[in-house]
Design a protein that fits this description.
By secondary structure, this protein is an alpha/beta fold. The protein contains 12 helices and 12 strands. It has 2 domains: about 350 residues, TIM Barrel, CATH 3.20.20; about 30 residues, no CATH class. Helix content is about 35%, strand content about 15%. Bound molecules: flavin mononucleotide. The site of flavin mononucleotide has 20 residues, from strand 4 and helix 9.
Length: about 375
């Protein structure tokens, strides 16, 4: 019996969510919205992802304010028009694909905003070329050559809290099943957490309590209005001496567990160009394992997990509760089908595709070679 293809229930104070299996599509920015509005690209991409056979699909970092976009093309949910566009496109995608739980990542880019899309180089956009002044905990640029962001006032932090809460309500209206707060990869919430980016001397800076205050407040704000699982994505380490680290992450995850979080999603890095990352298969899973062992909070692991056996082992060895893939699903949107075939699991698919499902294929092909499968040779029944 495959662990990867066993259901998993995310518990929440006000409504649990059962995932049909334990692999998750990690959030991936598409940089393709029109002024934050979902469009045909999202319809196509989401339909594709909902047909991947995942246990849950996490929609890309979605900006809670226009200033909080990474690029001008980032998806937004900062007003009703954007929330409605997101909901309409999601509804249409859902009509074309099997029921898959959908989570959304609510995000603010902080000092990493006002950037070009990666395929345009990803550099900072100048103010006189359509860029904007970014907000951040402190007026420290991400890289020395970049324009410094503006340190947020206490009033702007209050506005941000309202923006996250409003976004969570719009997500609920759009039919979203779960929310992930983006506290990783050097974006605004991570900037508040890390002493490398947060040098405030008020209640939102200084010691661990001060630097984690915003994340803790936002978790409480969003949980108060969203009926369903709410979790947080964290970078377990900055990979820089003197930065945010694994013990900070365990402590915050412990707080989140006690506050009723449904999951924590453990990634690493992103807050400093000085980071030195020892990239290797599954290199971030030990951090997830540490959080899971110390806190018992549902833990999602991610990062260079590409093989079904590797994903299965991370679960059976108790490293993580759920495993997320990003690039592997863009490379092969049927990764889940292949994994199900390899591990003896089942996945759902649109009826048009069902005859190609691994379980069906196995039974059809049992007494014949794959090249002479009935389903591959009978166009009259197509
Ligand atoms: C195209 C692309 C877009 C991404 N966008 C996001 C994002 O919106 N939010 C986020 O937290 N991580 C984002 N990531 C990081 C992934 O979620 C994931 O953590 C990372 O790619 C490592 O997983 P992988 O080795 O399976 O690709 C993105 C990655 C890619 C490749």
């Amino acid at each position: 019996m495959s662990q990867l293809f066993s259901p998993y229930t995310l518990s929440a104070a006000n409504g649990e969510l059962t995932l049909p299996n334990r692999w998750v599509i990690a959030p991936m920015c598409q940089y393709s919205a029109d002024e934050g509005l979902a469009n045909d690209w999202h319809l196509t991409h989401w339909t594709n992802m909902l047909n991947a056979g995942a246990g849950m699909f996490i929609i890309e970092a979605t900006a809670v304010s226009a200033l909080g976009r990474i690029t001008p093309g980032c998806l937004g949910i900062w007003d009703q028009q954007r929330g409605d566009a997101l909901g309409e496109h999601l509804q249409r995608a859902r009509r074309l694909a099997p029921a898959t739980p959908v989570c959304i990542q609510l995000a603010h880019a902080g000092r990493k905003g006002s950037s070009e899309a990666p395929w345009r180089g990803g550099g900072q956009i100048a103010l006189d070329d359509g860029g904007w002044v970014c907000q951040a905990p402190s007026a420290l640029p991400h890289a020395p050559h970049e324009q410094a962001p503006q340190a947020m006032s206490l009033g702007e932090i209050d506005d941000l809290r309202q923006a996250f809460q409003d976004a969570a309500q719009r997500a609920a209206q759009a039919g979203i099943d779960a929310i992930e707060l983006h506290g990783a990869h050097g974006y605004l919430l991570h900037q508040f957490l890390s002493p490398l980016a947060n040098q405030r001397d008020d209640d939102y800076g200084g010691d661990w309590q001060g630097r984690t205050r915003l994340v803790r407040e936002l978790f409480a704000d969003v949980s108060a209005v969203f009926k369903g699982p709410v979790g947080v994505r964290l970078s377990a380490t900055d990979w820089v001496e003197g930065g945010w680290g694994p013990e900070d992450t365990v402590r915050l995850s412990q707080w989140l567990r006690e506050a009723g979080a449904s999951f924590v999603h453990i990634s690493t890095a992103g807050v400093s160009p000085l980071q030195k990352i020892p990239v290797a298969p599954g290199f971030q899973l030990p951090f997830a394992q540490q959080v899971k062992a110390a806190t018992g909070l549902t833990t999602i692991g991610v990062g260079l997990v590409t093989e079904p056996d590797q994903a299965e082992a991370a679960l059976t060895q108790g490293q993580v509760d759920l495993i997320a893939l990003a690039r592997g699903v863009l490379f092969n949107p049927r990764w889940g089908w292949s994994a199900a075939a390899a591990l003896g699991g089942r996945v759902q698919a649109s009826p048009q595709y069902q005859r190609a499902l691994p379980a069906n294929a196995r039974s059809i092909c049992k007494i014949k070679s794959a090249s002479s499968c009935t389903h591959a040779k009978s166009p009259s029944k197509a």
